[in-house]
């Protein structure tokens, strides 16, 4: 089953990707971005499956690649649904007037690694009036359409 997307504005969209496993897969955006900032979350298939984290790479103007990885760095994962919120870098205006700010942070060290690795962390910071939108995504509440 292919990914499905819901465009909130020309600069913000929500993407649901079913059956994401340990191998990177390309996900196309509905919007075209100058600098896309994706934030993704993995949903466990059921409570007995081990937790996993989402890995994102090859972020471009029209696509990105995603996979899941167990926290122990194991290739054995239970495929599941990944939900992403993708926004243009900076402040984005939604149709109802709320604003959503998307930023990245470059980190030069990670906890527990003997060799520091550069990577970019992506985060979305809602404005005070956008808090419900951000919490709605994190808590898997339905989006108002």
Overall description:
With 145 residues, this protein is mostly beta strands. The chain has one domain (4-138). 6% of the residues lie in helices and 49% in strands. The chain contains 1 helix and 10 strands; from the N terminus they run ββββββββββα. A hairpin with a 5-residue loop joins strand 8 and strand 9 (99-107). The model is unreliable at 113-119 and 125-145 (pLDDT under 50).
Descriptive tags:
145 residues, mainly beta, 4-stranded antiparallel β-sheet, 3-stranded antiparallel β-sheet, 1 helix, disordered C terminus
Oligomer: single chain
Tell me the total number of β-strands.
Answer: 10
Q: Kindly give the count of domains.
A: 1
Order of helices and strands: EEEEEEEEEEH
Shape: globular
Q: Please state the structural category.
A: mainly beta
How would you sum up the major sheet?
4 strands, antiparallel
Taking all residues together, what is the mean pLDDT? 77
What Rg do the Cα atoms give?
15 Å
**Residue fraction in strands:** over 45%
């Amino acid at each position: 089953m292919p990914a499905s997307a819901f465009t909130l504005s020309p600069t913000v969209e929500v993407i649901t990707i079913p059956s994401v496993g340990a191998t990177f897969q390309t996900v196309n955006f509905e919007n075209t971005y100058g600098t896309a900032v994706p934030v993704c979350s993995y949903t466990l298939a059921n409570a007995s499956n081990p937790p996993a984290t989402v890995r994102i790479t090859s972020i471009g103007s029209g696509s990105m690649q995603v996979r899941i990885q167990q926290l122990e760095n194991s290739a054995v994962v239970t495929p599941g649904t990944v939900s992403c919120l993708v926004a243009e870098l900076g402040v984005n205006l939604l149709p109802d007037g709320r604003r959503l700010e998307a930023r990245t942070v470059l980190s030069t060290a990670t906890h527990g690694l003997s060799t520091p690795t550069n990577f970019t962390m992506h985060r979305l910071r809602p404005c005070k009036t956008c808090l419900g939108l951000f919490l709605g995504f994190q808590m898997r509440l339905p989006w108002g359409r």
